[in-house]
Amino acid sequence: MLKGGRSLEREVSLRSGANAEAALRRLGHEVIPVDVDPLLVRTLRSERPDVAFLALHGKGGEDGTVQELLEILEVPYTGPGVLASQRAWDKAVAKAYFATAGVSTPPAYAFSQDAFRELGAGEALGDIRDRLGLPLVVKPAKQGSALGISVVREPGEIPGALMTAFSYDDRVLLEQHVAGRELAVSVLGTDDPWALPLVEAIPRDRDFYDFEARYTPGLTDFVAPARLSDAESQEAARVAIACYRALGCRGISRVDMVLDDAGHPWVLEVNTIPGMTDTSLMPMAAEAAGLGFDEVVERILADAAVGA
C-alpha cells in the first residue's frame, strides 16, 4: 500500500490509503503500509510485494513517476500505466486526447512561466480574454484536487489568478468557463470499461467545487445518483468511457465534467487515482451502484499489472 508521500495532497492520500488498507485487510490480504519517502526503492526491494496498491495522490503519484519505478522493479501496481498517467496529469495534454476522441472540453490556452518572462505572453491576455470571454478559469496545468484554481470574473483579476496558479506549477491553463452542474463519472474495468452511477457535487456558497469543498464535511451536498434524464446519464457515461479509453486507462479512474444548461457534457479532467476518503466521489458512486467499498477495492486490485 503506497500512500502519503510529499505532494500537496499528502493528507488526502493518507486518508484514502487508510480506507483502502482497512478494506484490503477485511478481504484477507496481508498489507504492508508504506508512507512514500526517498527510501521507496529500497523498501520495495526489501519487502518484495506481490502488488503495489496505489493511494498516492498528486505529484509523484498520479503523474507516472512512481509507476515508472514500479515497472523498473517489475512490481505490478493498481491504476493506469505510465503513459496514461502522464497524459491525464497534464490537463493541456489530456484535452488533446479528449478532442481526438470527439469529446467536448472547454477551449483553453496553456502557457509556461517562461512564455510570460521571455516571450511577452502577458501582452496576449487581452486577446485570450476576448476569445474565451468572462468568466474564465485559470488553473495549474499539472495539479490535483482543484488546487490553485481561480474563477476570474473581472479582467483585473487575471494577474492575481495567474500568480496563484504559477505557485503550483510552471505551466497554466486559461480555460473558458462553462456554467452548469458539476458531475463525476467513475469508470471501472480495463477490458470492458463501464461507468458507475454519476455523482453531482453541489458546493454551498462557493464559486466551484474547490479543495475545501472537496474535503471539508458540510461544505458540499452530494447527489448519487445524480438526478438526470436517462439520455443525459447515458451520454455522460459514454463520454467518460471515451476519455478513459483515449488516455489508455485501466483499473478505475474518475472523469470530472460539467453538464451545461442544454444537457451537454464538457470534460474537465480525468483523475487516475481517485480519492477514497469519506467525502470522495468514487465511493459514493460505488454505493449508488450497489457495490460495497471492499468490492470496489478488490476489483481495482484484480486489474493490477505491470505496464500498459
Keywords:
12 strands; six-stranded antiparallel sheet; single chain; 12 helices; 19% strand; 308 residues; alpha+beta
Q: Could you provide a short overview of the structure?
A:
The chain has helices at 10-26, 40-47, 65-72, 82-89, 91-100, 113-118, 125-132, 158-166, 211-215, 230-247, 281-288, 293-302; strands at residues 2-3, 34-35, 108-112, 136-140, 150-152, 171-176, 181-188, 194-195, 199-203, 220-223, 252-259, 265-271. It is α+β, with helices and mostly antiparallel strands and 308 residues long.
What is the N-to-C order of secondary-structure elements (H for helix, E for strand)? EHEHHHHEHHEEHEEEEHEHEEHH
How much of the sequence lies in strands comes to 15-25%
Instruction: Compute the separation of the termini in Å.
Output: 20 Å
Contiguous uncertain segments of 5+ residues: none
Number of strand segments:
12
Which class of secondary structure composition applies to the elements?
A: alpha+beta
